[in-house]
Write a structure and sequence with these properties.
The complex is a heterotrimer of chains A (275), B (254) and C (320). By secondary structure, chain B is mainly α. In chain B, 80% of the residues lie in helices and 0% in strands. In chain C, 26% of the residues lie in helices and 32% in strands. Classes of the chains: A mainly alpha (275), B mainly alpha (254), C alpha+beta (320).
């Protein structure tokens, strides 16, 4: 078996080594080099890129990324929990109801973002309607602000929250809820005292699955924030393209990775279940 | 309580689908602005006569199909091997690749390609995009394949070995046929992730390898365009159908 | 005796299935009442209707003469001990027991005092801070009892609470349960499919079949004077001879013809089964029917011709 297994593992190991591990190593190397005259990198080796991360300008971007991701995660949780309960408790069409939540996720993220832009622009549907009915004289600035970015993130990652929540809520023994009611707990109390504590693994997994991509989000702040709401993802992209400061971009990338890793390690112990 | 939940859920479903529905409706609007003017199919027609978009579509399909085939084969083999015995190194690498923010994957691949090409004298193009897509979609394939394998009874393989099949024959004659719905589901999933990707693609694409998402992105930045609406609706419906197919295959037990 | 719980024409219909069919029942204060029947007979459905987890299709439930119609489970003054106990896995023993008390706006000290009292009652002192998965099956069951009893409900509903225990423990818990019920004086409505449990525990009991109550009475009444064939057979073994039933322990066997004044029939011994404390002797009567006798000991051999006989006062006369 060992030889066949080795043969089967080799291509994947090769791909992961060459196209995942080595690129990260190069990013690490770049982050320790100096900026080249026309982009790219050059010697000497230096820690300067890392020290620049602590400029107040970049700390502000980091802080903004964290709180936008946190708010989006919280909103996802608030939206998803009742959904998960609803789907888990419905007697028929459970799978259909769940798939209806997941379906938009698997269609294009870009197009779903675009759909919101179509609604929220100054010349978008909502403003056009409000102007045409003379409710407003000036279009409302719905797009290109932090609120729009959060909306886009919540819309984009909601299914990531629903799925793990559903998985834990669905496994809850209904007798426990009956017992809670039997002992005098109203549905609201039963929710807080029984369902929420017992759904903790699902809550943690869901928050992680939403928080991590939100923290590193690039497309949503770029399109729906209109360049005003800059997050870490935009900072990285900017350094590699317009600003052409690869060492700094690399340093920010690595720090972002490290933060993601620390959060994951601290909260998630179920990676084995997935892969 | 139950009725309240149902009401809440319907609001969330509305939130999920309303933007897409509005987009679909206005893709048939004969006016260029967001006021209903009359029904037309001209924007759909326009998409099919826009050579730039068609080139983009061909690029996207080429990339998605190549990446899907490679990723599915590599991922299926790896999934099978991991099912037999865990390999923490590869498992952790795949898991890590899932967690890595797209933009970081993108810039690291960009840096990698720029660095290697200094020695190899090649340039960014479709091939770099395909390699990038194989890299980030591999974990998805392995997840789907492993989930499917875990529903199989290991006794079937033992029975085949017992009846004199060697390991390769067991894999090819017994496991792969049972795994086929999972493999197809993984491939469809891989295809949609690849076809949809913008962030990584835009970083590692060469001058002549613009993909459909890159074009949609460029047009979305410029403003509302009914052609983008029409194109988006077609892509959404296409991907939606693929995903429904994948879902059906995954639920069907061997 | 005052009636504490009354069911009037209680009916629960599921699509295509009548689970509970016009059940009338009155349970007295402090009574240990058992609902006995095969699985699917509607006994658990009846319990869930009383607890309020299901709404009846028609009929009414009265708790101390107050109708429970439309009152959700958390306002009903009844408590349930669930089949698998439904202990909250994230709460300790003490927290499980305190759960219901905390809903009643009691002071912290009052709660912990009551928890201590009831845990002492069920002999769980010292296990307060254990989690449900860290204690034995018998202890879990006592936590479930304590959790309900601490609220001093008007009626305690028990849904096959002993069925999850192994047989030896089950017998021991049976005695504890009865003693506990006597001490707290709360009416128990006990659902079981085990006739031995029902017979040994109940003050009164009912046998349920296909959604209906077949018969209600004391265990002795039901055992010795069953109203139907179903009740007679569900409560123990019966030989049916010429339309009359006779329990194996009433059947005597002798080689000689017995005297007058008893029912006697000729039979051939077909075999015997040694059961430790007694022997089951199976015989075949001349008309072909089988008749089993439970004897303290037996020296009959297979093929022996014998006389089986019993006193006619021991016969069960059922109407249906």
């Amino acid at each position: 078996m060992t030889r066949l297994r080795a043969a089967f593992l080799t291509p994947a190991a090769g791909v992961m080594f060459l196209l995942f591990f080595v690129p990260l190593l190069i990013v690490l190397a770049y982050s320790l080099l100096s900026r080249g005259a026309y982009g790219g990198v050059m010697q000497p080796w230096t820690l300067e890129s890392y020290s620049r991360v602590f400029d107040s300008l970049y700390l502000e971007i980091a802080w903004r990324s964290v709180w936008i991701a946190a708010v989006s995660t919280f909103l996802c949780l608030a939206l998803a929990f009742p959904m998960a309960l609803f789907i888990a408790r419905s007697t028929r069409h459970k799978l259909l109801l769940l798939n209806l939540v997941m379906l938009p996720f698997w269609t294009s993220f870009l197009i779903r973002t675009y759909a919101w832009m179509f609604l929220l622009r100054d010349t978008g549907l909502i403003n056009t309607l409000l102007l045409a009915t003379h409710i407003l004289k000036q279009p409302l600035p719905l797009l290109f602000n932090t609120g729009a970015v959060i909306l886009g993130l919540v819309y984009g990652y909601l299914p990531f929250m629903v799925l793990p929540l559903y998985a834990t809520v669905e496994k809850l023994d209904p007798a426990l809820l009956h017992a809670a009611a039997d002992l005098g707990a109203s549905p609201w109390i039963a929710f807080w005292r029984v369902i929420v504590p017992l759904s903790k693994p699902g809550i943690v997994a869901g928050c992680l699955l939403v928080f991590i991509p939100c923290l590193g989000a690039y497309l949503t702040p770029d399109l729906m924030g209109g360049g005003k709401t800059v997050m870490l993802g935009n900072l990285v992209q900017n350094q590699f393209t317009t600003a052409r400061d690869w060492p700094f971009g690399a340093a920010v990338s690595l720090l972002l990775m490290v933060v993601v890793l620390i959060i994951t390690r601290a909260l998630w112990r179920h990676s084995e279940e997935l892969i | 309580m139950k009725r309240g939940l149902a009401l809440y859920a319907s609001i969330v479903y509305f939130f999920l689908y309303a933007p897409l529905a509005v987009l679909a409706i206005f893709s048939f609007n004969s006016s260029k602005i967001a006021i209903w003017h009359g029904f037309t199919g001209q924007w759909y027609n326009g998409v099919f006569h826009n050579e730039g978009l068609l080139d983009g579509a061909i690029n996207s399909l080429l990339i998605a199909i190549s990446a899907t085939i490679a990723s599915t084969v590599i991922g299926t083999l790896a999934g099978y091997a991991l099912w037999k015995r865990r390999t923490p190194l590869l498992t952790n690498a795949l898991f890590l690749s899932l967690l890595t923010p797209e933009i970081v994957t993108g810039v690291s691949l960009l840096a990698f390609f720029e660095w290697t090409f200094r020695f190899l004298h090649v340039q960014l193009g479709l091939h770099t995009v395909i390699l990038a897509h194989i890299s980030f979609s591999l974990a998805y394939v392995v997840i789907v394949i492993l989930a499917r394998l875990r529903t199989l009874d290991p006794a079937l393989e033992e029975a085949a070995l017992d009846l004199g099949a060697n390991e390769w024959q067991v894999f090819w004659r017994v496991t792969v046929p049972m795994l086929l719905p999972g493999i197809i589901a993984a491939a469809l999933l891989c295809f949609t992730v690849s076809f949809d990707d913008y962030v990584i693609t835009s970083l590692v694409a060469g001058v002549n390898s613009e993909t459909l998402p890159m074009m949609i992105y460029a047009m979305a930045r410029r403003g509302v365009s009914p052609e983008v609406n029409a194109l988006s609706v077609m892509i959404t419906v296409g991907l939606g159908v693929l995903i429904l197919l994948a879902g059906r295959l995954e639920q069907r037990r061997a | 005796m005052n009636t504490v719980l009354e069911l009037r024409s209680l009916t629960k219909e599921y699509p295509g299935h009548l689970a509970v069919n016009r059940v009338d029942l009155a349970i007295a204060e402090g009574e240990f009442f058992s609902l006995l029947g095969p699985s699917g007979c509607g006994k658990t459905s009846t319990l869930r209707l009383v607890a309020g987890f299901e709404e009846p299709t028609s009929g009414e439930i009265f708790l101390e003469r107050q109708s429970l119609a439309g009152i959700p489970p958390y306002y009903r003054d009844v408590c349930t001990v669930f089949q698998n106990y439904a202990l909250f896995p994230h709460l300790t023993v003490a927290q499980n027991v305190a759960f219901g008390l905390q809903r009643r706006k009691l002071s912290k000290s009052a709660i912990s005092e009551k928890v201590q009292q009831v845990l002492a009652l069920v002999q769980l002192t010292g296990k307060e801070s254990r989690l449900p998965q860290q204690i034995s099956g018998g202890e879990r069951q006592r936590v479930a009892l304590a959790r309900s009893l601490v609220l001093q409900p008007k009626v305690l509903l028990l849904d096959e609470p002993l069925s999850a225990l192994d047989p030896k423990l089950r017998k021991q818990m049976r005695h504890e349960l009865k003693a506990l019920q006597r001490r707290v004086g709360i009416a128990f409505l006990f659902v079981t499919h085990d006739q031995e449990e029902a017979l040994s525990l109940s003050d009164r009991m009912a046998v349920m079949n296909a959604g209906r109550l077949e018969q209600v009475g004391t265990p002795r009444e039901l055992y010795t004077r069953p109203a139907s064939r179903f009740v007679a057979e569900f409560l123990g073994e019966v030989n049916w001879v010429n339309g009359a039933g006779v329990r194996p322990e009433s059947v005597r066997v002798s080689r000689d013809r017995p005297g007058d004044g008893v029912r006697a029939l000729q039979a051939v011994v077909e075999g015997s089964t040694f059961l430790g404390n007694c022997v089951h002797l199976s015989t075949r009567l001349t008309d072909g029917a089988r008749c089993t006798a439970e004897l303290p000991h037996s020296d009959f051999q297979t093929g022996d011709t014998v006389h089986v006989w019993w006193y006619s006062s021991d016969e069960l006369r059922v109407t249906s």
